[in-house]
Amino acid sequence: MKYFSRFTVLALTGCLAIASCTPAERSYDQSSSEASDSVIDASTKAKVNTAEVDMDGREKSFILSSYSHSLYMVDLAAITAQSKNSELRKFGDQLGTSYQVIVSSVEKMAKSEGLLMQRKLSEAQQKELSALKELSSPTLDQQSLQKINQMLATFTTVFKEGSHLKNVELKNFADASLPKVQQQQAMAAKLIAASTDSGTQSTRPGEVSTGN
């Protein structure tokens, strides 16, 4: 009987100890969880405070890529004004106008997302454009057409990927822009073919890097 009583007392004591510790442990776990959640919430709130619509990485990448490439294309198109080829100059004017519109549109969309864009090219882009400015026809024609064709291929990829974005505004923008780029690709291909047929294509490829 004494053994049973002692066992009962020990068991009750153990239960009371467990009961008294459990809330504390639960409180610690809960406070730790709440601390982690508060950090996440703070980051989320910071995004919300700087953007009307929360963007994922793909959406931000789309905006940055579209903007950077469009800025480059505007300057590249302006350089074709130095060409002696009237068709290339005309095409350059069309590209310049088209991508100025894209630059303005992307700036507007970026602003609505809380992103402030800077109209500044990278050092690599500036270096490429500076090298192009030193050329004259027919080398200028070849090099500028090669670069325009490469950039249009890049835009095709960017806008095709943009057509799958969840953000409706960005998706619609990509869908509307893609057909225009494809028309520009067809025109670029026509000019390249004409340049080759007329024998005006330069035999000095590589004067300007085609890497962007």
- Beta-strand residue percentage: under 5%
Name the poorly predicted regions: 1-13, 15-53, 201-212
Structural class of the helices, strands and pairings? mainly alpha
Helix content: over 70%
Gyration radius from CA atoms, angstroms: 31 Å
Shape: globular
The main sheet comes to:
none
Order of helices and strands: HHHHHH
Number of strands: 0
Distance between the termini: 90 Å
Mean pLDDT: 77
The tally of helices reads: 6
Description:
With 212 residues, the protein is an all-alpha fold. The chain is 78% helix and 0% strand. The chain is built from six helices and no strands. Helix 2 runs antiparallel to helix 3 (86-112), helix 2 runs antiparallel to helix 5 (139-162) and helix 3 (86-112) runs antiparallel to helix 6 (168-198). The relative contact order is 0.11.
Q: What topology emerges from the helices and strands here?
A:
Elements: H1 2-50, H2 57-79, H3 86-112, H4 123-133, H5 139-162, H6 168-198
Helix pairs in contact: 2-3, 2-4, 2-5, 3-6, 5-6
